[in-house]
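Figure S4 source data
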Amino acid sequence: MSACSCSAYAAVEGTSALSPCESGLVLIEGGRAGRLAARAPRPARHADAGGLTLGQTVRALVCGGLVILAVVVASALVDPARAAGVQSALDELPTRSVIVSSGDSLWGIAAGCELDAPTDEVVTWIQERNGIEGGLVVPGQELMVPVAGAQG
């Protein structure tokens, strides 16, 4: 037979009661835990809904779609302006004549200009300045290309 000794202690620092258990352990109630337990319980979420209600899911999808649309519209407005700025900067550079060799391409020639500009923009500039359609160059063809150098 086990002996269980129980003692009652005065409540200290929010401890409202000490109650003995069958196991001989003492359960301390009160304090902060007692105040939290008195609050209304939160409604349980459905595990199969992934934590979001249907309305929240729809709102999240609509907001995501609007963000993507805003990025696409901003890109459509900014890219042409940026390209025009690059083309304008290339127009201000001095030029030199280059003779196309066998195996040369517009992309390779533009990369060889070593400018601080995107290579595709330099290719576009060379095509427009030399009246090239489709990007095909032939050996012996003379092209005007921009050269990095002092401006103005």
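Figure S5 source data
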Amino acid sequence: MLGKVLVATDGSEPAKHALRYVLQNAPEGAEIIVLSVTPPVKDREDFGRLLNQGESWKLLFNRILAESESIAKDARPDANLRILLKEGKPKDVIVDTADEEGVDMIVMGSRGIGGVEGWLLGSTSRAVVNECRNPILILK
């Protein structure tokens, strides 16, 4: 039985589809964790570059999570939903969060289409499949 599901999102249509799928199919009372991952600051040069974009990255990912929360409330007002925003490499953060949270399944979209969408999904979904120890469902 699925008691806790992690949905990784970057705001892309495949990610929204994954969230809707979980909302439609998760058992009553299941905890649904919606996770989005901002780009990491790798070194001082990246920090300088991101210093000007840092707030916009944060605002962008907060907007993605707010939209996910709105989708969830519209589709299933009684959903036991938790929203997480973390920083780092998406593959690592998704796998680590799944382990830390003790989720029963990871659900994510099949791929983004470049830009921010490509940041989280696409090659990341393949990397998560290769690294995770939890069941994973990839949706198109």
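The CA atoms of residues 25 and 80 lie 13 Å apart. The helical segments are 13-25, 44-75, 90-101, 115-120, 123-131.
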